[in-house]
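As a warm-up, study this chain.
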Amino acid sequence: MKNIGVILAGGTGVRFGSTKPKQFIRIAGKRIIEHTLEIFENSTVIDEIAIVSHAEYIDEIEDILLHNSFKKVKKILPGGKTRNESSLSAINAYWNERKRDHISLIFHDAVRPFVSEDILGEISNALRNYNAIDVAIPSTDTIIEVEDNKIESIPDRNRMMNGQTPQAFRLSVIKKAYDLALKDPGFKASDDCGVIKTYLPKEPIYIVEGHEENIKITHELDLFIADKLLNF
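Now compare it with the structure written out below.
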């Protein structure tokens, strides 16, 4: 199998007073996406990298590649308005490959610059036996289900986990799930595992244990934590 790391950098949200999306904010001397790309570039289990970017920032991505030695990056793809549309951009691009039956896509948030080689290795190993992989850590907080500002239920915390990325799939399986999803006028999913769970419910989704440091940089506090981790 050929493992393709798909770096999802299509977000356009501007935070922390920056004039650019958060994946282009600099911490420890580099843009966040550069830290993420380095991990995938140096990984022994990643064969190729594709970057999905909002069309407005493709020039920025090209500038990053010009000033770095990311030899595994083979595709820069335009993203969509949603996470699902960005994932679909990569799925369709690789579906046209000659050896598509031997491809796995490993989707990862550009703003998670602390994914480890151990996690990527576990994903690669799991792909030998499963067609869909998620990364998650046990929930440390009580989860409550709320409606109209009132608690409806409190699930057993021992059964709850917090999802992270990467999420990995055999290309043929995630393509099949999206083909079914696109026929559904009510299609809505927050991530790619959700597409599998909804439209291929009999397909098991294997969980690889993540890590607390594999944070997604979303809020200003996350930026502070990331800077400390990178300078530790």
